[in-house]
Amino acid sequence: AAARTPLMAGNWKMNLDHHQATHLVQKLAWTLKDAKHDYAAVEVAVMVPFTDLRSVQTLVDADKLELGYGAQDVSAHTDGAYTGEISPVMLAKLGCRYVVVGHSERRQYHGEDDALVAAKARSAFGQGIVPIVCVGEGLDIRKEGRQVEYTLAQVEGSLAGLTAEQAAQVVVAYEPVWAIGTGEVATPEDAQEVCEAIRGKLREMFTPEIADAVRVLYGGSVKSGNIAAIMAKPDVDGALVGGASLDAEEFAKIVRYQS
Ligand code: PEP
């Protein structure tokens, strides 16, 4: 894990009004500045609603913040007759470093499958935006003990068609669906089991060097109280944080692995 810079990404989902959003990003930046956070040691990014991106860009640019930001979804197309979609070209112009693709909420409520997730990941890379590709099993699969095979099949489908250069930069987020927003956190051992298997799959799909370079995040009810034990696992390179990223002080603690 030595060569991989951990990434702590906050996923705000469909929360906060515009004033709260701009306040949160500033408060997070100030809190991390007060703590003398070293962004080169642990990268930090926030995944915000589309309607907040322009303002977040302005704040980040004005203060030359090292905080990264991005969107929570992207179109598989670059332009055209796709009413309601947001293209990667638009996101790139807004300075997005990352975009979440294939979040379980989009898979579940919007019928996104692995092929579409892979198309979105390629679409993001086409404009220089790094996709954070989400995978993870539901409770039924976990109860059957099939979490590894299920998640690896998602990895295979959701990274299909990436070039070697893209694969080396992609971020994979392992988010067991039963642990998202439920307060039910996977044990560090559960997280390690699947994250390690994901890295094995990347070795098989691409090369050992690529597998070693890819950051595999854990997501699911991460809080300041459980982050240190999760980050101690060798194949976990950061976290995708939902609820706890809406509080600047709590998220700053998570970024710094502090309880
Ligand atoms: C998420 O939405 O990616 C997530 C992990 O949510 P939470 O931290 O709230 O479980």
What does this entry look like structurally?
With 259 residues, the protein is an alpha/beta fold. It has one domain: TIM Barrel, CATH 3.20.20. 43% of the residues lie in helices and 14% in strands. It has twelve helices and eight strands. It has helices spanning 18-34, 53-62, 88-93, 104-109, 114-126, 139-143, 147-158, 164-169, 188-205, 208-213, 227-231, 248-255, and strands at residues 7-11, 43-47, 68-71, 98-101, 130-135, 171-174, 215-219, 238-241. Strands 1-2-3-4-5-6-7-8 form an eight-stranded parallel beta barrel, surrounded by five helices. α1 (18-34) packs across α12 (248-255). The chain binds phosphoenolpyruvate. Phosphoenolpyruvate (PEP) is lined by residues 11, 13, 175, 180-181, 219-222, 240-244. The site of phosphoenolpyruvate (PEP) has 14 residues, from β8.
Topology:
Blueprint: E1 7-11, H1 18-34, E2 43-47, H2 53-62, E3 68-71, H3 88-93, E4 98-101, H4 104-109, H5 114-126, E5 130-135, H6 139-143, H7 147-158, H8 164-169, E6 171-174, H9 188-205, H10 208-213, E7 215-219, H11 227-231, E8 238-241, H12 248-255
Parallel strand pairs: 1-2, 1-8, 2-3, 3-4, 4-5, 5-6, 6-7, 7-8
Helix pairs in contact: 1-12, 5-7, 7-9
The site of phosphoenolpyruvate (PEP) has 14 residues, from strand 8.
